[in-house]
Amino acid sequence: MTALPLSVDDLSVRIDGRELLHNVSFDVAPGERLGLLGGSGSGKTLTALALSGLLPRGAEVTGSVKLGDQELLDLDDTALARIRGDLIGTVFQEPRTALNPLRRLGRQMTQSLARHYELDRTQRREAALKLAARVGLDDPERIIRAYPHEVSGGQRQRAAIAAAISASPGLLIADEPTTALDVTIQQGILQLFIDLTEGDATSLIFISHDLAVLAEVAERILVFADGRIVESGTTTDLLQRPEHEITRALIAAATRAEWSE
User: Fold this and answer.
1) 183-198 burial string, b = 16+ CB within 10 Å, else e?
2) pLDDT value at residue 140
3) 235 and 219 in contact (C-beta within 8 Å)?
4) What is the pLDDT of residue 200?
5) Is the Cβ–Cβ distance between 222 and 232 less than 8 Å?
6) 138-182 residue pLDDT tens
7) β-strand partners of 28
8) Are 244 and 238 in contact (CB under 8 A)?
């Protein structure tokens, strides 16, 4: 599927009477890699959940979220479920929570494909093998037959990414997908996201509290604090000429972490 432009306008979210996201607006161009940066509770993950229709029941959402010409906030749960996997793929921080421990990885990688297309058993197996190879999983034959607990954390995350991209979504949302991985594995996962967007013109929203990680994968960054965007710009501009104190603090933290390694 061809990447579609995303337009977010005055997005606000209230949960239990408290407004946690305040008038957030931004665009993502087709094929662009956008980073959302901020600490815990800053609103970056809440934004991602709102975009993908995964907010808790009872949440109040106002504003506009358009993917192409489709207004996502007008859709009911059934319509949103069709959008997820087809137009929007999501990857979460901990694949253990995203993967069913009782189902083989190959079945889970092809779940979106099976929902959208009629595939027989042989076709589904072939699709799983191609996806496993595409995300850099060694020994695809073994991996697709394995259960999540039978593979490493890095392999689980690659399997979760395979599941998210199986139906070739136009937009991929990755929420802290490398936080639980060691540095060596993390580098491979970051390069995988870059390759996926460059190869398919898929748009990417990559969420992290780690500026050093976003500097590797994102072309442009939005800085979140207290449910608002406090600064935005190209990755180079933010690193070289940060204006907001939050951005400067995050750069300082990333610099200290690098020197402490």
Assistant:
1) eebbeebbebbeebbe
2) 95
3) yes
4) 61
5) yes
6) 999 999 999 999 999 889 999 999 999 888 888 999 999 888 778
7) 6
8) no
pLDDT score at 199: 63
Six token digits for residue 121: 């058993």
Reading the block at residue 38, the tokens are 């901020």
Which residue type, as a one-letter code, is found at position 142? Answer: R
- The SS3 assignment for 223 reads strand
Q: Within a 10 A sphere around the Cβ of 138, how many other Cβ atoms?
A: 10
Is residue 124 within 8 A of residue 110, CB to CB? The reply is yes
Q: What one-character DSSP code corresponds to residue 202?
A: -
Q: Which two tokens stand for residue 39?
A: 């600490």
Exposed e or buried b per residue across 212-222, where buried means at least 16 C-beta atoms within 10 angstroms of its C-beta: ebbbbbbbbbb
Q: Which residue type occupies 102? A: L
Cα–Cα distance, 166 to 127 (Å, whole number): 8
Tokens of 239: 């690193």
Q: Which residues contact 194 (CB under 8 A, 6 or more apart)?
A: 33, 217
Q: What is the DSSP letter of 8?
A: E
Work out the widest C-alpha separation in the chain, in whole angstroms: 56
What's the pLDDT at 259? 44
CA distance 164 to 42: 25
Regions in the chain scoring below 70 on pLDDT? 1, 199-201, 256-261
